[in-house]
């Protein structure tokens, strides 16, 4: 390693340069944008839609397991519907066992080209498209 630095530098300066290089390497290695926790930690995570605030289309309250969203580690979302459920205003909930591509960060998710805000708090998942302006808000609970 000493061959990489000029000979006129003192040992103290060389040590300082090594420390700076090591610090920068560790800093930049830790600055990667992380995917959302539910994506990293799931080979398949399953969520039941409980509340759908649909702007002008109203509000729908659902029991567990009527509409299930399953996220897998291959960036695919599978939506499962009970036979008794149909509301064309709930996004991605008009076809049973439909599969959609998604990408996510800690604060956003894009599903099949549609962008949503994302909020994950232990066993609660919320996605929205600005409900203050009559956009949708979907609240999910984690299935065991």
What structural category do the secondary elements indicate? alpha+beta
Could you say which overall geometry the principal axes of the C-alpha atoms support? elongated
Return the average pLDDT rounded to an integer.
79
Strand content: 35-45%
| CATH C-level class of the largest domain | Mainly Beta
What summary fits the major beta sheet? Answer: 8 strands, antiparallel, barrel
Order of strands, widest sheet: 1-3-4-5-6-7-8-9
Alpha-carbon distance between the two ends? 53 Å
How many strands? 9
CATH topology of the largest domain: Lipocalin
Number of domains: 2
**Second-tier CATH architecture of the largest domain:** Beta Barrel
Uncertain stretches of 5 or more adjacent residues: 30-42
Question: What would you report as the Rg, rounded to the nearest angstrom?
Answer: 23 Å
Query: Which H/E pattern describes the elements?
Result: HHEEEEEEEEE
Helix tally equals: 2
Helix content: 10-25%
């Amino acid at each position: 390693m000493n061959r990489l630095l000029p000979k006129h530098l003192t040992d103290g300066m060389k040590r300082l340069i090594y420390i700076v290089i090591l610090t920068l390497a560790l800093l930049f290695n830790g600055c990667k944008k992380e995917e959302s926790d539910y994506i990293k930690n799931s080979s398949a995570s399953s969520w039941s839609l409980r509340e759908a605030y649909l702007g002008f289309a109203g509000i729908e309250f659902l029991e567990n397991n009527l509409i299930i969203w399953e996220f897998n580690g291959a960036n695919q979302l599978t939506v499962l519907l009970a036979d008794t459920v149909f509301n064309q205003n709930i996004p991605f909930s008009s076809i049973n066992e439909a599969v959609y591509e998604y990408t996510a960060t800690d604060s956003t998710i894009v599903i099949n080209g549609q962008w949503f805000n994302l909020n994950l708090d232990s066993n609660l998942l919320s996605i929205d498209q600005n409900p203050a302006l009559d956009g949708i808000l979907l609240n999910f609970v984690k299935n065991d």
